[in-house]
């Protein structure tokens, strides 16, 4: 019997395989026209920190970023191949154009990759084969969380490198799951630091950035979002759930503007949020721009709406992007002015950095703060204060004398 000859590869077939524009692994992936991410919807305006042009190049850099673990690289590659193929061939859009809700749809797709024949193969073909598919079957729940945690890591890296401003639900954060390639202790520390409240020096540059953005078409909305986050310490979800009916204008009973924030705990100031002067001015200008200036009671009495219309008028994703745009502009302005330390801090800041910052910036002096703690929020402990020769007078809820320096005219 003659020994079987090794079949010689067909050059024409090999060339066609290189030009394959269907579902493929990363090393053979070819974008259909217009879907490579060069003009992705959420590509960052400022220069990218890494030399990449397309979504595929960015993904390949992320796979090997800050790791030498083969398990981590394999896990990232598998998640990226599923995401890239699904985005391009199922959603018909680049990865850098994906919305937050679409990434949640991708998570559901991982549990049921349909059509099955297109996405799944029970065989184990070579990666160079046209029969290769990114799935061997629907993912289990642990595999789902591991894959989405890698996707969250990719989105975070893209934001950090100023490639694309992708948003992924925090419930997919890789710090919540024990997976290969999850954030190291140093990385987790860096994330906590990025959520620390901004400093007074940073707030000055944020104010300058907001003043410049006022000239843009959507600048007033961006200012309103940032000031609600900063002065009110609100969560983004609380911000977008505010209605125009929650706004109360000054009256004889309360001489300042305030908002009714449904569900806010007493530890965070209660449901009534009294507006500092700059935020009140911004809100008044915003309502005039919308030609809606009636308060909640009058709004309901007139029967215009039972619950009122959305105050800010944007989604959570849009609110986050407004706040991030202000942080990026503030960082650029600080760096251009030679304030390198402040500019670099602002580069690493995240939207939660606005929360609690106002409280820190207008905090009382230590001895006065100690007196405030002795009196508590429930009443005056005059006997104790008298014995310690301390005097303290509670301020009204709309007394902003301790915070006036935060909106003083900029030099």
UniProtKB/TrEMBL annotation:
<dbReference type="InterPro" id="IPR011010">
    <property type="entry name" value="DNA_brk_join_enz"/>
</dbReference>
<dbReference type="InterPro" id="IPR013762">
    <property type="entry name" value="Integrase-like_cat_sf"/>
</dbReference>
<protein>
    <recommendedName>
        <fullName>Tyr recombinase domain-containing protein</fullName>
    </recommendedName>
</protein>
<keyword id="KW-0233">DNA recombination</keyword>
